[in-house]
Amino acid sequence: MAEGQSKSAAHTTADGGHKAAFPPFESSTFASQLVSLAIAFGLLYLIVSRLALPRVGGILAARKQVLDTDLAEAARLKADSDAALKSYETELANARAKAQAMASEVREKLNAEQEAAKARLDESLAVKLASAEQTIASTRSAAMSNVRGIAAETASAIVERLIGTTPDAGAVNAALDASLKG
Predict the structure, then answer these.
(1) Out of 12, 94, 133, 167, which could bridge 159 as a Cys pair, Cβ 3.0 to 4.6 Å?
(2) Is residue 124, in this structure, part of any structural domain at all?
(3) pLDDT tens, 23-82?
């Protein structure tokens, strides 16, 4: 157990006075420290310049190549999409022109059919009108001939009532002719 106590005593007791300075600050070791520092920086420079920088440069070059390839592909795709858009716009304009031509053709066809139907209707109405006018003329003629007979009978009846004798049919007709002429 004495060993356990001596170990713990060694840890708890400290030398109060250091006579030597902190090793990195000792002036007698500056030259060796500077040489060690120069060697360490030289080795670090060699490692970085021979191993790390070429790898980083290769990575940057590969990345630049990928970016350039991607940019070239994007430019190609943009040119393709612009060409497709132009083709689409051309096809759309052609389709619109074709649709307008078809609509115009249908409109002209319907107008022609309408004009033909109107002409047939006008002809049919003209025939019916001529027939109606002929019927009216024949009815008027018949009515006028009946009117003359009725007028002759009426005039004979009036004269007979007024004077008491039946007038001569020739005199009544002569009087009617004179009255109708004017």
Answers:
(1) 167
(2) yes
(3) 777 778 888 888 999 999 999 999 988 988 899 999 999 999 999 999 999 999 999 999
CA distance 165 to 81: 117
Domain of 66 in residue numbering reads as: 34-181
Number of domains in the chain: 1
Chain-centre distance of CA 63, in angstroms? 43
Domain membership flag for residue 3: no
Vertex 76: Cα angle to 74 and 79 (nearest 5) = 110
The DSSP-derived string for 100-126 is HHHHHHHHHHHHHHHHHHHHHHHHHHH
Residues 167 and 162: their CA atoms lie apart, in Å, by 11
| Residue 28 belongs to some domain of the structure | no
> What's the pTM value of the predicted model, to 2 decimals?
0.40
